[in-house]
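Backbone-to-sequence.
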């Protein structure tokens, strides 16, 4: 028991250390640095353009899962300090999706806006991915303290529930893309992770709903 408390305290001290955020920032940039280095040293295989589009898509999905994992981890482990990293992780989802969109626009489409618009309309999996990108944009734009203040906490929270829709779109995009190749193994891994993370939230929501009438009932009884 005492060791548990001591461990939790030292983890909290580490997470609250002034260097914790810069360290996470550097770690989150490592995939980008690796891709950049690989591209310049010709180490991305026979089709570097495809490699870059896919790797940036993978990292978008990974950071989405990591961001969605912060709240469950924080509550299950009783580590409130984890909350300080959620915004940065969320912004890294946007950073990698912008890189993904730029790689596609450059390598697949030669930055031809008319061609990109036609492709989005023609290929459903691209349309789904693009919708995910569009929905991520207001979340990234309102992730700063000033936006939270201007919107009010309730409206801000309601808007940020969009992340659940985005997770669904991301999975559908990935599933649809892999359907052409009949290769679903990784899609199912991510679907499992996201199902657990969203399922946990549903359980918390149901518990809260059940607790509220119980609390109201208790209040009524005690007043009687
Ligand atoms: C929430 C937003 C998005 C997420 C999470 C996402 C994620 C992914 C993932 C995981 C892959 C597959 C990588 C692999 O096979 O290992 C992928 C592929 C791809 N995505 Fe996205 N994506 C998103 C948005 C977009 C957008 C906005 C576009 C373009 C408009 C796009 C275009 C593509 C293309 C062209 C591929 C590769 C298809 C191929 O190689 O056949 N994605 N994406």
């Amino acid at each position: 028991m005492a060791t548990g408390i001591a461990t939790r305290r030292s983890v909290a001290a580490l997470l609250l250390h002034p260097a914790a955020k810069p360290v996470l920032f550097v770690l989150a940039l490592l995939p980008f640095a690796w891709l950049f280095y690989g591209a310049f040293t010709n180490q991305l295989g026979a089709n570097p353009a495809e490699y870059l589009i896919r790797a940036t898509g993978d990292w978008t999905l990974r950071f989405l899962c990591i961001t969605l994992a912060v709240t469950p981890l924080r509550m299950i482990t009783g580590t409130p300090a984890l909350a300080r990293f959620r915004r940065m992780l969320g912004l890294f989802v946007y950073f990698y999706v912008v890189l993904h969109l730029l790689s596609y626009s450059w390598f697949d489409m030669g930055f031809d806006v008319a061609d990109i618009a036609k492709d989005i309309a023609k290929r459903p999996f691209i349309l789904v991915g693009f919708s995910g990108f569009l929905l991520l944009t207001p979340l990234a734009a309102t992730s700063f303290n000033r936006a939270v203040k201007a919107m009010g906490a309730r409206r801000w929270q309601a808007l940020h529930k969009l992340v659940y829709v985005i997770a669904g779109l991301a999975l559908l995009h990935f599933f649809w893309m892999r359907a052409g190749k009949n290769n679903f193994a990784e899609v199912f891994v991510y679907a499992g992770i996201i199902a657990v993370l969203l399922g946990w939230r549903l359980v918390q929501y149901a518990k809260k709903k059940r607790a509220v009438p119980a609390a109201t009932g208790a209040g009524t009884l005690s007043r009687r």
